């Protein structure tokens, strides 16, 4: 009996969210929902729930490197997504691994959790700028992360364009600036995707739903999943945006705080 066709292969390099809404857990749920085979390199363990991050423990560099090599050298990979890399040492280790991997890399420069808890040491910011962003196919900062990395405070779409230019100056091929945190009560959420020569403005409805935990992880993983399927960056981002919009609309209450987006929304029709 012949085996079934193998799905595209995607690797996430990120931290664990014990509450299941973000991090490795969100990444793997997204990959399953989008029809790719998800694999993981764990960078940190967090004690986390709907109310916040109550503790975080970073894995040693050698553990991260060993996980990555075990997967890539035997199984292979068609796209990689990075998330929580809490220290300069981990950022530089992962950047080196990505540089030696022939696959697109989606870098989500995670700085703080949905609840405002720091997930990246201030001392690691320069390593993100100088080693990680230069090896990214797509960098996906939100507006808070733009401020952390560039010092720019973005308040409108013109500011998003300036932010994209500043992020691109660090070396990624594409910048996806996520505008969900723009001030005001606009009926739509806007993101900007650009490589410096072409721009794609992506609009989606803004839902009155506070349960948005895991949005950034989910979007970056969805982009990586579609890149692994062979889509171009603009195509992959548009498809990922559509998936995340559905997940946001279906976000549900969990515990006493902010619940997660629903990664399985498309199956619940």
Automatic annotation (TrEMBL):
<dbReference type="Pfam" id="PF08543">
    <property type="entry name" value="Phos_pyr_kin"/>
</dbReference>
<dbReference type="InterPro" id="IPR013749">
    <property type="entry name" value="PM/HMP-P_kinase-1"/>
</dbReference>
<keyword id="KW-0418">Kinase</keyword>
<dbReference type="InterPro" id="IPR029056">
    <property type="entry name" value="Ribokinase-like"/>
</dbReference>
<keyword id="KW-0808">Transferase</keyword>
<protein>
    <submittedName>
        <fullName>Bifunctional hydroxymethylpyrimidine kinase/phosphomethylpyrimidine kinase</fullName>
        <ecNumber>2.7.1.49</ecNumber>
        <ecNumber>2.7.4.7</ecNumber>
    </submittedName>
</protein>
<dbReference type="InterPro" id="IPR004399">
    <property type="entry name" value="HMP/HMP-P_kinase_dom"/>
</dbReference>
<comment type="function">
    <text>Catalyzes the phosphorylation of hydroxymethylpyrimidine phosphate (HMP-P) to HMP-PP, and of HMP to HMP-P.</text>
</comment>
<feature type="domain" description="Pyridoxamine kinase/Phosphomethylpyrimidine kinase">
    <location>
        <begin position="17"/>
        <end position="262"/>
    </location>
</feature>
<comment type="pathway">
    <text>Cofactor biosynthesis; thiamine diphosphate biosynthesis; 4-amino-2-methyl-5-diphosphomethylpyrimidine from 5-amino-1-(5-phospho-D-ribosyl)imidazole: step 3/3.</text>
</comment>
<keyword id="KW-0784">Thiamine biosynthesis</keyword>
<dbReference type="GO" id="GO:0008902">
    <property type="term" value="F:hydroxymethylpyrimidine kinase activity"/>
</dbReference>
<dbReference type="GO" id="GO:0008972">
    <property type="term" value="F:phosphomethylpyrimidine kinase activity"/>
</dbReference>
